[in-house]
Amino acid sequence: MSSAAENGDAAPGKQNEEKTYKKTASSAIKGAIQLGIGYTVGNLTSKPERDVLMQDFYVVESVFLPSEGSNLTPAHHYPDFRFKTYAPLAFRYFRELFGIKPDDYLYSICSEPLIELSNPGASGSLFFVTSDDEFIIKTVQHKEAEFLQKLLPGYYMNLNQNPRTLLPKFYGLYCMQSGGINIRIVVMNNVLPRFMKMHFTYDLKGSTYKRRASRKEREKSNPTFKDLDFLQDMHEGLYFDTETYNALMKTLQRDCRVLESFKIMDYSLLLGIHILDHSLKEKEEETSQNVPDAKRPGMQKVLYSTAMESIQGPGKSGDGIITENPETMGGIPAKSHKGEKLLLFMGIIDILQSYRLMKKLEHSWKALVYDGDTVSVHRPSFYADRFLKFMNSRVFKKIQALKASPSKKRCNSIAALKATSQEIVSSISPEWKDEKRDLLTEGQSFSSLDEEALGSRHRPDLVPSTPSLFEAASLATTISSSSLYVNEHYPHDRTTLYSNSKR
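Now predict its structure.
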């Protein structure tokens, strides 16, 4: 998946230009997508719900939609095409797992025209977003679609064990055949909502080789930057409270291990940063220009699987933030090194790249010219470790607890010093304690020494010249240490100990 296309910007200045993909106009692709998904999802509702079986992952349903229409399909003004649906029952389960009802799925995709997004990536894929901002629809290559089919059983198992994940949520895999051309599309969750302005967008891989946005990309209104740009712009990283940080890192670690087990590499973390501290006027202008679809039944929450829900799950602060303030749209609260309040939107993208022969060869020749550990293409285990290390040490950081003030430190050190002296005193043999008690009863006790040090209770009118509390504790430690030393080496010289105690 091209990361920059996910930032929700329609192609600027190209509204009247008709894009083509595999010699097919984008308008025809959008129309075929809506017709095909409308038919297949509607037909699926008549099938009873049951457990997903292993053979369900390999089922492919096909329907022919002629332009003049048929008994099962409506007429349309696009060329005749055949629409294939891969693993319909399995994907129906995936949608239900994330709370997407069939009616809502159809409403999001088929009720309004799809919005085409710009694609600055090298893949040449087309990206569409639904008008209610719910789903991203992307054209994929044959190898990517084939890999996703093989991935489905393991993907199913992972979602069953852990539905809280930053991995892409795949809601459907389809293929449109027309004029001998196959156009494969996948429906996914939208990582960056268009109604929330992203002041910064980054595509992060944890590598440094050629990981800087191009000049052409920088000239865009909302460019997508890369790793070296992040290290330059956000050199101190992004800060979270302890609970959020731990939940985020635990989710990333779990997701990376899943990807490593599938031998997947070259994925990215798409990170959108919304700065809350920017002027209210800017927000009001954006709100007036971008009003969510009010016709949506029930006005459900904006995204089915938000960033906060993906790392924390229901019943925690993520849902609380959504209900308390819908304007956050499920973003993860954070702070910049400047103390700015931020909302972060993120998700792992581009996971349909396996470490096949071509990728191994690509890494080999790049490693000959450059440092092999810095290039993005690498074996899955190394890639996952480098990715996590970069996120943990350079991108995401935990807000440290406030350090104790010097006065508190001093008090703590004095308390520790007193405790140490008491331990030393208590370690003296009982016999010597008895003898020492007899000697000390005739002279000055430790309590009277404390009274002298801290002020006499009998003469409140006098301002005593007392040693500091630290000196008093030091004196007590010296006495205790001297007592222990004398006890061990000079048990006969009790008079010396008594005189030391007096002083």
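Residues 406-426 form the longest helix (21 residues).
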